[in-house]
Design a protein that fits this description.
Helices cover 48% and strands 14% of the residues. By secondary structure, it is an alpha/beta fold. The strands form five sheets. It has a seven-stranded mixed β-sheet. Strands 11-8-12 form a three-stranded antiparallel β-sheet. Strand 1, helix 2 (56-64) and strand 2 (69-73) form a beta-alpha-beta unit. The chain binds S-adenosylmethionine.
Length: 504
């Protein structure tokens, strides 16, 4: 193996996934909701993704927010070549890609950054690369800028960790084949009633999951020489080297105590001073496998008035068609039904399009006090029923760029089913669509009025058919009838939402 890899497996390309947790608009809302000053997203903000893989997330974020300047690196040239091809084909002008390693990217001529995101990187690279990343954050993040860091967390991984030993013992022609052979061997051990599996439910659950995951994911997750599982307080100590402090989770759902902790746990944690020790103790209660943390480089607390002012200006949009939203949530603490009189008016206020918190409050009138409305909005964002947005000004310019990018993605997704996300210039992030709904958007973008007719024309040219109840439909009539039924459903529910998201 050549040493530029620093023990990272580069013989198989990584999967091309989109990660909504990397959306800057979501980060800013999480920071504000937790009472921190956050960068503003209306000016030319600057954002970098390090170790971007095939770059789908950064492309979506750059296309949805062309007023921002985006930068990304990954030392696998195949990843950057794939990402650059889509950037060129869609004419994205605000994204610079580099195949530099973390060490070399340190000296790249970058502007001072508002945000740096590291997804799927911290736990998977060697100590030297992590030290390079700390140096990068210290050198390139603005004072007041933030970093997103995801990592494999302890204690969640503790009972599962030895599975990696089994995956790495597999044999095959490349890392992906070896990992898959390792999963097959682990299966056999489990079936033989090996005692480690018999007494270890989390490991059995993870093994079931591994069977469904792509080989490339297994290779990049399990086969590298370095694989660091860490407690939150260890990351906090490491990032102190970049003068950074923990602010909050990037997942609002994970950060809302009332959604994830019992009353007893909340009382127990309240007795520990705020800081890494409490956060680590919290992980023993919630037991996450992956943490998604936001750290600030020089965090400044907002006064209550400043926080209210910034929150009032935040815009929100529905993330799910209104008709499909129920108020029952399945949470770690059990099933919870949200109070209709608090939540329904907020959802109704968003039914016709994005609204600022201030506008939501005007519409819902005196019904809820400000604290109740803010709390309810946080819960709805945490439940992914509504999404924070970019500022409303500049939407038309953003939409023109996002449309060009989405047209390219729609074209490519005819051949690549996993390319399932389109950029929303409203949220600044991606929105996932089912394959048939993507075909309907493709038809709309081509000016068709008979969406089902055009969708069937495309599918038949590709030699594909609509799948119903797990079976492909065999005749033209059956395919068209099913597509017409789905078109009616799409027009009633999804199309109005896509208009609000400015995707069509
Ligand atoms: C697990 S993948 C995650 C990719 C992407 N962030 C995502 O979540 O889809 C880690 C990525 O980091 C890149 N990487 C690892 N070590 C690196 C280094 N020293 N310099 C630059 N990139 C590196 C790998 O090539 C790989 O694409």
């Amino acid at each position: 193996m050549s040493d530029w890899t620093r023990g990272y497996r580069t013989d198989v390309n990584y999967t091309a996934g989109y990660y909504p947790y990397l959306n800057p608009a979501a980060h800013v809302f999480s920071l504000l909701a937790a009472g921190w000053r956050a960068p503003k997203l209306d000016g030319a903000f600057t954002y970098a993704e390090l170790g971007c893989g095939q770059g789908l997330s950064i492309q979506v974020h750059a296309a949805a927010a062309p007023h921002g300047r985006f930068f990304a690196n990954d030392f696998m040239p195949a990843h950057i070549a794939t990402a650059q091809a889509r950037v060129d084909a869609s004419g994205l002008a605000n994204l610079d890609l580099s195949d530099a390693s973390f060490a070399d990217y340190l000296d790249a001529p970058l502007p001072k950054l508002d945000a740096v995101v590291l997804h799927g990187v911290w736990s998977w690279v060697d100590d030297g690369s992590r030290a390079d990343l700390v140096r990068f954050l210290r050198k390139h993040l603005k004072p007041g800028g933030y970093a997103f860091v995801s990592y494999n967390a302890l204690p969640g991984w503790a009972p599962i960790m030895p599975l990696r030993e089994l995956l790495r013992s597999g044999e095959g022609s490349d890392s992906a084949a070896r990992a898959r052979a390792g999963v097959a061997f682990a299966d056999k051990l489990r079936d033989s009633d090996a005692r480690w599996f018999a007494g270890n439910e989390p490991a059995r659950t993870m093994l079931e999951r591994l069977r469904t995951l792509p080989n490339a994911y297994l290779a990049h997750e399990y086969m590298n020489d370095s694989w660091r599982l860490l407690y939150h307080h260890e990351l906090a100590t490491e990032l102190d080297g970049a003068q950074m402090q923990f602010a909050t989770s990037a997942s609002l759902r994970d950060s809302l105590d009332e959604l994830v902790l019992t009353d007893e746990q909340r009382a127990l944690l309240a007795a520990i001073p705020e800081g890494p020790r409490r956060e680590t103790a919290r992980d023993f209660c919630t037991n996450p496998l992956l943490r998604r943390d936001l750290f600030l480089r020089g965090g400044v607390r907002l006064s209550t008035i400043e926080q209210l002012q910034r929150l009032n200006e935040c815009t929100f949009v529905l993330n799910v068609p209104r008709a499909r939203i129920g108020l029952k949530l399945d949470l770690p603490v059990g099933s919870v039904t949200l109070a209709h009189e608090i939540y329904a008016p907020i959802l109704d206020a968003l039914q016709d399009g994005p609204r600022t918190l201030g506008q939501i409050r005007e519409r819902t009138g005196e019904q809820n006090d400000i604290a109740t409305t803010i709390q309810a909005v946080k819960v709805l964002v945490g439940a992914e029923l509504i999404a924070p947005c970019l500022p409303q000004a500049g939407l038309a310019e953003r939409k023109a760029i996002a449309d060009a990018f989405n047209d390219r993605v729609l074209f490519e997704s005819l051949h690549e089913a996993e390319l399932d996300v389109l950029a929303s210039p409203v949220t600044g992030g991606g929105f996932r669509l089912e394959p048939i709904d993507r075909l309907f958007v493709f038809a709309i973008r081509r000016g068709a009025s008979d969406l089902a007719g055009l969708a069937w024309q495309v599918l038949s040219q590709l030699g594909q058919a609509v799948v119903k109840d797990g079976q492909p439909l065999m005749t033209d009539d059956a395919n068209l009838a099913e597509l017409r039924r789905r078109e009616a459903q799409f027009r009633a529910e999804m199309l109005p939402l896509l208009r609000q998201l400015a995707i069509v």
